[in-house]
Design brief:
The chain has strands at residues 5-6, 26-30, 33-38, 41-46, 51-57, 64-68, 71-75, 83-86, 89-92, 104-109, 115-121, 125-129, 140-143, 151-157, 160-165, 168-172, 177-179, 196-199, 202-205. The protein is mainly beta and 208 residues long. Strand 3 (33-38) and strand 4 form a beta hairpin.
């Protein structure tokens, strides 16, 4: 199907159950190039035809997409290695162990202020890297809370990485993650903090 096109009149992103649901429709941009992850496909926007041309058929269902450096990164969950690339040139991660898997991606900075890509790996691990390509720099990993409450989303706000979990919203404190929503500790829910959007300086998050 490489080189095929698809068209849409309208689209929406929604989640019917808890967890890292497959991406319904999500976009990332490299310079002036727009990419979309839809199910098992990555599309590249063509301004000439106003369509997304299929440039990559994925080995699994996309769960997240992000742009970092010169690459688009597409997460494929806990058991299928993520891919990165642009146009029709894509590379499958061969990082050791679980480092090649990701549920979510989010661009931000590390504790030293160095630009990097963050990823989550269920149930409660996150990591940041300044160069997460093959042969690059492996993730600096952190454990976020307990393993009984899973990560549902990564968010970047006010120059800080935030992790949404069943039992709360965790903020990065330079060397650890702190739950800043005490009320959710006794009322965990898989719909908490999975989706987020910044608007006029505030971060709006989903909840139960």
């Amino acid at each position: 199907l490489t080189g095929a096109t698809f068209r849409f009149d309208a689209c929406s992103v929604y989640q019917t159950t808890g967890g890292a649901a497959p991406v319904g429709f999500a976009v990332a941009q490299v310079n002036s190039n727009l990419y979309a992850a839809v199910g098992q496909m990555v599309g590249h926007w063509s301004g000439a035809t106003n369509t997304f041309d299929i440039v990559k058929i994925l080995a699994g269902i996309a769960t997240s997409i992000a742009t970092f450096g010169a690459n688009v990164y597409v997460a494929l969950g806990d058991s299928t290695a993520f891919v990165y690339g642009t146009d029709t040139t894509w590379t499958t991660s061969t990082l050791a162990g679980n480092s090649k898997y990701a549920q979510h991606f989010r661009v931000g900075t590390d504790a030293a202020g160095t630009p990097g890509l963050w990823r989550s790996f269920w149930p409660n691990t996150v990591g940041g890297s300044s160069n997460p390509v093959n042969g690059g720099t492996d993730w600096t990993t952190y454990t976020v809370g307990d393993s009984e409450n899973r990560i549902r989303g990564l968010h970047w706000w006010n120059r800080t990485i935030l992790v949404g979990k069943d039992d709360g919203l965790y903020i990065f404190r330079q060397s650890y993650f702190d739950n800043i929503t005490a009320e959710k500790r006794t009322a965990p829910n898989s719909l908490n903090f999975g989706q987020g959007q910044e608007f006029l300086g505030a971060l709006y998050l989903s909840g139960s």
